[in-house]
Write a structure and sequence with these properties.
Length: about 525
């Protein structure tokens, strides 16, 4: 029997560097995380997904992996990671880790060997080394982080990096690369991890020598699916450990092809994440999601935030609530009270939908995006690569406020690697635990109900007018969200299980969601 827990799971994303600092260096670590496992168990989540924890020069927050089989010393040791997996399992929490197959760090043994071995060597064939066109790079591809996608090495060749220069792309036409990653998956499955989140999963196959064919030169190219078929055979051989794709792709049919029964188990629903706070747009995304997943038997996922995107209370507090991952809208006027009000409603919508749900650390506290981090402290490579025009993603990576009245808010004893706003005193776990009306209290109650009767299954729309999203789940629970400007009547029910804000008698106010029996 293969495992199925993931079909309806609530998965909590831990950005380790910013979760809790156990040793006073200002950077989160495994000791800090282990110290707060009780908090996560109490929150009612089923699994933790950790961003990369491998040894890394941290040019891109750990997405530049120097060694896929060890733990970054800032975070702890391999022995500690094994202990952590055991402890989480004993609390009934599964562990998902990140794997980064598109690129390594330029400090990985493989890349250093390739550099030293020189042009034409076997070691260079595991990356994309090419001669240039005179003083120009081999082609004009641009890096996703800005600037050219090629960097020249002292012997004159250039190597490809879709992201930062410190992240050379692997060449997936090399059988050695395939074998290496099968072995990496096994290494961690043998240590008990329950699955992988696959970074940049759709961009592994590319041919920089080919003439442009009018399609995206590196997204969703032929051959990429074969990689995940191979991986699925590895994960199935471990009794059904899971593969979760980071697949950013507007074409939902193409997206769903990654979820065929012999490929990944699930993938992040970025169409939902990027959707504006608008009833028609949300309904369309939800319908498309259900329609493309159902024929494959794959459960959808629902995501409001992660370590790459502007936090929801900020996004929903702006005049334009849409979001594109290269259109962060930094510095737009924001009404945080409105944003928070909507984010509460969005949380109830998201957690009621059929399938799995992700909660990014701090989302349950309603943390806003921090938009005034001094430039000198920003660490996201996007800041420098964009010529300091795009402040990047550090604003959603600010360390978590746990307790107390002033920074570092119980995060650790050292100075946090990014400054926490003083106003977060009201948003600490401690403060919110004492307040039944807090965002944290809402997430706790919602996750509890969700664990008992939501998750995997089906939904039936109810028609309550164009401003309202309303649907019934298999258990009979009905979710009603009012996205219009005026209060609407609440449909007949025997009890109100949970509401995102105060109700007005029999009316559901604007930007409010309710779960009914
Ligand atoms: C993914 C990660 C992001 C990282 C990029 C390159 O999009 O989520 O944080 O910068 O891949 O690895």
């Amino acid at each position: 029997m293969l495992e199925t827990w993931w079909r309806g799971a609530a998965i909590y994303q831990v950005y380790l560097r910013s979760f809790a600092d156990g040793n006073g260096d200002g950077l989160g670590d495994l000791a800090g995380l282990r110290g707060h496992l009780g908090y996560l168990a109490e929150l009612g989540i089923n699994a933790i997904w950790l961003n990369p924890w491998y040894p890394s020069p941290m040019s891109d927050g750990g997405y530049d992996v120097a060694d896929y089989r060890d733990i970054e010393p800032i975070f702890g040791t391999l022995a500690e990671a094994e202990k952590f997996i055991e402890e989480a399992h004993s609390l009934g929490i599964k562990i998902i880790i990140d794997v980064v197959p598109n690129h390594s760090s330029d400090q990985s043994a493989w890349f250093k060997e390739a550099l030293a071995a020189g042009p034409g060597s076997a070691a260079r064939k595991n990356f994309w080394f090419r001669p240039g066109r005179g003083d120009l790079p081999p082609n004009d591809w641009q890096s996703i982080f800005g600037g050219p996608a090629w960097t020249r090495v002292p012997d004159g060749e250039w190597y490809l990096h879709l992201f930062a220069p410190e992240q050379p792309d692997f060449n997936w036409t090399s059988p050695e690369v395939h074998a290496e990653f099968h072995d990496v998956l096994r290494f961690w499955f043998d240590r008990g991890v329950d699955g992988f989140r696959i970074d940049s999963a759709a961009v592994l196959i590319k041919d920089p020598d080919a003439e442009p064919d009018g399609k995206d030169p590196y997204t969703d190219r032929d051959g990429v699916h074969e990689i995940y078929r191979e991986w699925r055979r590895v994960s199935d051989s471990y009794g059904g450990r899971i593969l979760i794709g980071e697949v950013w792709m507007p074409d939902q049919e193409a997206f769903a092809r990654y979820l065929r029964p012999d490929e990944m188990h699930t993938a992040f629903n970025f169409a939902f994440l990027g959707c504006p706070w608008d009833p028609a747009a949300l309904r369309e995304v939800i319908d498309t999601t259900m329609d493309t997943h159902a024929p494959l038997g794959a459960p959808p996922t629902w995501v409001l935030s992660n370590h790459d995107v502007t936090r929801p209370v900020t996004r929903y507090g702006r005049a334009d609530t849409s979001f594109g991952h290269d259109d962060r809208k930094h510095g737009m006027p924001t009404d945080l009270a409105l944003g928070t009000h909507r984010a509460r409603a969005a949380a109830l919508l998201t957690m009621a939908l059929p399938g799995g749900v992700y909660v990014y650390q701090g989302e349950e506290l309603g943390l806003p995006e921090v938009e005034d981090i001094p430039g000198a402290l920003l660490q996201d490579p996007i800041w420098e690569r964009s010529g300091r025009t795009d402040r990047g993603r550090d604003g959603c990576r600010v360390p978590i406020p746990w307790s107390g009245e002033a920074p570092p808010f119980g995060y650790g004893t050292g100075e946090p690697w990014l400054p926490q706003p003083a106003s977060w005193a009201q948003l600490t776990v401690e403060a919110q635990s004492a307040d039944p009306g807090s965002m944290l209290a809402l997430y706790r109650k919602a996750l509890l109900i969700r664990g008992a009767e939501l998750g995997d299954g089906t939904m039936t729309w109810l028609d309550l007018g164009p401003d309202v999203l309303a649907f019934r789940r298999d258990s009979g629970l009905t979710c009603v969200v009012n996205l219009g400007p005026d209060p609407v009547p609440i449909p007949a029910h025997s009890s109100v299980l949970l509401a995102s804000g105060p109700l007005a008698g029999d009316l559901l106010p604007a930007d409010t969601a309710v779960w009914l029996r």
